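Thread title: Can someone regenerate the structure for this chain?

I was given the following input by a collaborator and told the matching structure tokens would be attached. They weren't. Posting the sequence so someone can regenerate them.
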Amino acid sequence: MTSSKLQAALNLSASIGTVDAPASARSAQDDVLRLFDACGPSLFRYVRALGIDAATSQDIVQEVFLALFHHVRLERPRHNLKGWLFKVAHNMALKQRRKLQRRHADEISDIELAELVIDPCLNPEQRLAEEQRHTRLRSVMHALPERDRQCLYLRAEGLRYREIADVLGISLGSVAKSVTRSLARLGNV
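Best answer:
Regenerated them for you:
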């Protein structure tokens, strides 16, 4: 927003509320325009940093300076007007951001919402692939020699190699070979 646009807005605002005090309105207007030139760009950058788009940020800055004009015209305290500007801009920006978030949330249709929810189930293609994989695993397991299959089952139950050797009555080396051989065959599935 340019100083001339703010000037026009302030002129309109001054003419709406003032019939009897044009001199004080002119003084307030001059004060606001000076502050706009000094603080307008940094205020705009601050509002932008709060995640507001450029056009809306310009509107917010204009609203802040119109509010300042009314503040000055009502002869409210003028100490730390720069801080006042940033506080008002901050509050307006947050209000605008909440408004946009509510609008965005309202715009999500049921279809979009359904697309956002992740279905924990496998889709038909994935289910078929998983079933085929299980079928191959079962066929490989059935093709394993009995001792290899037993070693693998016991290992899957959490038994250590020494415990498997004791259960099956075979050597520790035989258990290691059986489990390694079985896992290699299953790894190819």
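Confidence is low (pLDDT under 50) at residues 16-21.
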